[in-house]
Specification:
The chain is mostly helical. The protein is 78% helix and 0% strand. It has one domain. The termini are far apart. It is globular. Keywords: Cell membrane, Membrane, Transmembrane, Transmembrane helix.
């Protein structure tokens, strides 16, 4: 169980760091916020992968397609996070 949690955190962090490189602009986020957003992005990517391709954890937790899906989900989560930050900055 601890190994699964560590794997989720590491894959989420890597996915979000790559997403931050792919999405233009500066993102003012702490390392913990990056990891948290990466985990959320991994969940989004896993959900989209399941919906589109009907693959799940029974096919193996660590797959190259899962890493790519995590990065795509992290990019989606980062773009949504940036949009909410812009709205918040405009109100202040």
């Amino acid at each position: 169980m601890l190994g699964l949690i560590l794997t989720i955190l590491i894959v989420g962090a890597i996915a979000e760091f790559i997403a931050r490189l792919l999405v233009p602009g500066r993102q003012h986020m702490s390392v913990l916020a990056t990891i948290a957003l990466g985990v959320v992005g991994s969940l989004i990517g896993g959900f989209l992968g399941y919906v589109l391709f009907h693959k799940d954890a029974q096919d193996g937790l660590f797959q190259p397609s899962g890493i790519v899906g995590s990065i795509i989900g992290a990019v989606i989560a980062l773009v949504i996070w940036q949009m909410t930050q812009r709205r918040h900055d405009a109100r202040v």
